[in-house]
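seq as requested:
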Amino acid sequence: MNPSIDNDEQKHDEGSTIDHWPYFWWGCALMAIKYNLDRAIAWFGFGRPWYLWNYIKPHGFAAIDAVPPNDRTFYVILLLTSLPFLISGIVLTLRRLRSAGLPLGLCLLFFVPVINLIFFAFLCVIPARKALAPRRQTARWIFLLPTSAGGSALVSMLIVGVVGAGLAYFSTEALRNYGWGLFVALPFAMGLVSVLIYAGPKRRSLASCLLVATLPILFSGLCLLAVAAEGAICLVMAAPIGLVLALFGGMVGYIIVGNRAAPLSPASMLLVLASVPLTMGMEQRADEAPPLLSVTTSVVIDATPEQVWPNVISFSPIPSQREWILHTGVAYPTQARIVGRGVGAIRHCIFTTGEFVEPIEVWDEPRRLRFSVADQPEPMEELSPYPHLKTPHLHGYLQSREGELRLTAMPHGMTLLEGTTWYTDQIWPTQYWQVWSDLMIHHIHLRVLNHIKNLSEQRRTEGNSR
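struct tokens:
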């Protein structure tokens, strides 16, 4: 072999890598330049402020077509000016991954919101990978862990589960924030760190690592339930997104462990978990208004709009039978009464947790009844070993804003009755939690609409018999 060629290849490899401290300083410098550039564009070009937390939740828009027209130019300019920084960040991250001996495919995490902050923090700590020795080097802290698979899994679950429960409690109780930091960054970090601890003493299989990644999520949920910090149903609803992201973090942890000559230091794992409350704090400072969402449910009634209308504005108590989801603690309607007539009347819809106070805004008899929501009760009763559990998300997070009942005449004396609720939910990510809230509201609608249908058809039958 030609020695000069080998030397050239070695120099090329060294030049295409970057160690953790230069990566940290370059990342901070680029972020500072980009942030101040964005601030200048926002302030001098559009007369608006711009803060660090706006990178996490710029406005809660799901797509570019959801951005208000006045803001589209601003965000397009920010996107265009970010391209040089994006390219630089990708190049630096690829060199850092090569230096750390990690798969270059992990660079995709650079594009995942929130998780990319954890990923950056992690790459800023792990040192450059040395040449693989015949056997893995052993760190001092490894001797404190059990060598058996069961023992390592148990220690990993306890350590990460307790820390995760504490961070979840910090987010919900101290910050009153249910967002990306809680439901995305935290489970990902828990899955990642749990595998790093579990696979520290000995190489483990992928299947066992993925299983271990989910254990702290389940254990932290039990901890929150045991200390009366959360109810069972809300934990069940949060489980799918938490477990999926924990598996994602566990996969990344498995790849990292498999490409390291020595176990990672506790400082690396600590920094990953420490980046989570930082994300939570930035998100809490953003305090963005949630989007206005809507749910529409309809039934066809064998009665005319004139016969249905009296049961729309008020109705007798609904029979106690209800669908499965309304047995989980979700508040549901029992009856409705109205005080007054026409615009300005007050409709009171009685739920199991209290009553909705609904001032009438549109009274178009017998076609349309529209109302706002002046007051509302808690959206559910938590299922918990403790009676009357009051968690923060029961107050002011899921809010009904307006409602409407629309009657459309159909052939053969029938009526299409549509019920619509407009609401906001300050629990993020919106796309995930909207699935649950839409499901609950849809079943609440069905309970009311089917009762109106039964009353109207019964009265029509009684009228025809006479």
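Residues 319 and 334 are 8 Å apart (CA to CA).
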